[in-house]
């Protein structure tokens, strides 16, 4: 299969196996033949309405078969996708539409109150469940409009906006060749094959969620899209009913599953792979997830939007390399440098740098910020990614996440990794979730603060928690302040929003 552009895999699998299920969502089931037919019709309609090679098409919808069709239609028309989280509010949506210079919007009708006041004049519009005067998306699937603007591999395929937890979100520019390469690398080490069935509960605006769809289509597999993870028991029932073999998640999802498994044990024996990214997966979670998914390999991974994925820990080494996020994904290279750009010895902390075809082209319209992240590489003219994240690397080359530059806690003259403290806290009986931050302190410089969510019925107090922590951590790493809470603030993609914890304490 010769895949150069992001639409090529869909065409190839639709030709070779048109009746194989591609996307399942909301009671609808599309085969590869169905998906290509819808995407091709919509691509023709987009072209007829003025979308040309390189134009941005914004997609503002809940997870559905329509999102999948819109994504591939945009690529078949030569356009650039910008998938926007359906939880996005009006002001932020208006900013993203203006920043991307989108020429067309494909939206859900039930989100009309948000997008109707946000769209600029002259923006093309197609709506699922359209109102009077609006183009009905399903009608466009059957367009016979001719023409298609062909792209080449170095053309942009996507603007993937960061979560924007501070300031305005940034559009990460990804080309067709970088995304095709990434799909190939991910499916290789995750061993995704055509008989796999991937369950995705994450928004497709989140690159981790988006790539569940893209990996499935790349491999000729099946993806089951759920709108969210609001009902975990129902999610597990769907996983069983749909014979799911790949279950991706983030730590907040797995924290809920771990808590549920402790109260109501069950077993999903068809799941063969569990994948985690976005934040560190505590070792205690790994143990309990092994009882829920007894046949599954567990992949601990690390990545960031600017290159999609950096590294993964081969599942057979989970016990041999506790706490590690592994090695570079196939076809790429990672290494650590100090603040002055010099090499870092094994066991020492350094800043992670990444080389490979998966590195972004830059931030859309943000040359200064792009230069902050993209540095000259060892090959003349090359740009490598400076993640600005701190890691250690052992003698075997395996990586251990220490913390983001602004997360490292400096206390008593020592540097504390929040991840290391959180891992110890998660191992304490009664702790469901833990997040660690630093707060300014006149005497210590910073004090380590633990934000704790307890299991239902747990009666753990501050003194007992500190005692357990002291048995697992060096004295300077033991939290000086413990705050119990009902829940931890999260981004729309399930990451813990630590800046809100710090702001809340102020």
Detailed description of the structure:
- It is a single chain.
- The protein is of the alpha/beta class and 506 residues long.
- It has three domains: 8-22 and 32-175, Rossmann fold (3-Layer(aba) Sandwich), CATH 3.40.50.980; 229-403, 3-Layer(aba) Sandwich (Rossmann fold); 407-505, GMP Synthetase, Chain A, domain 3, CATH 3.30.300.
- A five-stranded mixed sheet has the order 11-12-13-14-15.
- Helix 14 links the parallel strand 25 and strand 26 (481-484).
- Helix 10 (251-263) packs across helix 11 (283-292).
- The termini are far apart.
- The mean pLDDT is 91.
Major sheet description:
5 strands, mixed
CA distance, first residue to last residue = 56 Å
Q: Output the radius of gyration.
A: 23 Å
The portion of residues forming beta strands comes to 25-35%
Helix content: 25-40%
CATH architecture annotation name of the largest domain: 3-Layer(aba) Sandwich
Query: In total, how many domains does the architecture comprise?
Result: 3
DSSP helical segment count? 15
Strand order of the largest sheet: 11-12-13-14-15
CATH class of the largest domain: Alpha Beta
């Amino acid at each position: 299969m010769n895949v150069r552009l992001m639409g090529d895999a869909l065409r190839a699998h639709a030709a070779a196996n048109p009746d194989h299920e591609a996307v399942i969502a909301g009671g609808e089931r599309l085969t590869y033949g169905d998906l290509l037919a819808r995407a091709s019709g919509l691509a023709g309609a987009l072209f007829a309405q003025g979308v040309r090679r390189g134009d941005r098409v914004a997609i503002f919808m809940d997870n559905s078969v329509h999102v999948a069709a819109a994504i591939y239609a945009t690529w078949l028309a030569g356009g650039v996708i910008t998938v926007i989280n359906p939880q996005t509010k009006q002001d932020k949506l208006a900013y993203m539409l203006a920043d991307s210079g989108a020429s067309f919007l494909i939206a859900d009708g039930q989100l009309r109150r948000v997008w109707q006041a946000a769209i600029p004049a002259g923006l093309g519009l197609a709506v699922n469940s359209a109102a009077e005067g609006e183009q009905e998306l399903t009608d466009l699937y059957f367009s016979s409009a001719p023409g298609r603007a062909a792209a080449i591999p170095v053309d942009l395929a996507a603007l993937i906006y960061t979560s924007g937890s501070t300031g305005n979100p940034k559009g990460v520019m990804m080309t067709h060749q970088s995304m095709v390469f990434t799909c190939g690398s991910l499916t290789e080490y995750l061993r995704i094959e055509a008989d796999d069935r991937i369950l995705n509960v994450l928004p497709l605006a989140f690159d981790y969620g988006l790539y569940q769809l893209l990996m499935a289509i790349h491999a000729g597999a099946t993806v089951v899209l759920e709108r969210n993870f609001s009902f975990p028991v129902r999610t597990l029932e769907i996983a069983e009913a749909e014979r799911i073999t790949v279950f991706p998640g983030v730590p907040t999802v797995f924290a809920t599953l771990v808590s549920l498994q402790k109260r109501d044990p069950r077993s999903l024996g068809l799941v063969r792979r569990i994948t985690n990214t976005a934040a560190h997966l505590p070792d205690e979670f790994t143990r309990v997830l092994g009882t829920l998914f007894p046949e599954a390999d567990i992949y601990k991974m690390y990545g960031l939007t600017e290159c999609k994925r950096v590294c993964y820990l081969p599942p057979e080494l989970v016990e041999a390399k506790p706490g590690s996020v592994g090695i570079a994904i196939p076809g790429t290279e990672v290494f650590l440098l100090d603040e002055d750009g010099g090499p870092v010895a094994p066991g020492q902390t350094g800043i992670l740098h990444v080389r490979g075809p998966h590195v972004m082209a830059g931030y859309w319209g943000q040359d200064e910020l792009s230069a902050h992240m993209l540095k000259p590489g060892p090959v003349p003219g090359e740009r490598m990614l400076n993640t600005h994240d701190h890691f250690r690397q052992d003698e075997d080359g395996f990586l251990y996440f220490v913390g983001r530059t602004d997360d490292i806690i400096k206390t008593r003259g020592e540097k504390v990794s929040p991840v290391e403290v959180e891992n110890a806290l998660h191992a304490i009986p009664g702790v469901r979730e833990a997040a660690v931050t630093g707060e300014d302190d006149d005497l210590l410089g910073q004090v380590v603060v633990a934000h704790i969510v307890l299991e239902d019925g747990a009666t753990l107090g501050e003194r007992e928690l500190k005692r357990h922590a002291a048995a697992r951590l060096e004295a300077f790493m033991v939290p000086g302040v413990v705050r119990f809470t009902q829940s931890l603030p999260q981004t729309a993609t399930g990451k813990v929003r630590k800046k809100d914890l710090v702001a809340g304490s102020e």
